[in-house]
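Researcher: Checking consistency across runs. Here is COFA1 protein again:
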Amino acid sequence: LHLVALNLPFSGDMRADFQCFQQAQLAGLTSTYRAFLSSHLQDLATVVRKTDRYHLPIVNLKGEVLFNNWVSIFNGNGGQFNIHVPIYSFDGRNIMTDPSWPQKVIWHGSTANGIRLVSNYCEAWRTADMGAVGQASPLKTGKLLDQKVHSCSNQFIVLCIENSFVS
């Protein structure tokens, strides 16, 4: 399953699932992509289909392994990954080195176990208000689920996950 970033950073007011869907289509990817975010309807840990959570590796756009499988992201260690394996945007840029994402931080709105944090997800990703907060993770820590609170006015990286494998 591919983990890919949106082509631009977003504040807390985003239509992330739609953006993931649209950018995947424009990139010629045929699978379904969902935002790597907890939402008011779903915990992040359950975004990928049950049948695909254990046996499929999580890879970047070039097929390099970031995680052995989906569930390994949520084992409580904050989603530790190898920072030497790049994460790419849908248009092929390395988000860790490209200046389009000046802040190397991803939104996630979740606990380290992928459960939604209702008080820390920018009002279900519907506000960029400076007073509202969202849970995010600085990628330099090598963790997708580090527990840092930021104002929803920040423009951060949004990741998308291929939520079902299509052979």
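Researcher: Does this match what you'd expect to see?
Model: One thing to look at in this run: The chain has a mean pLDDT of 95.
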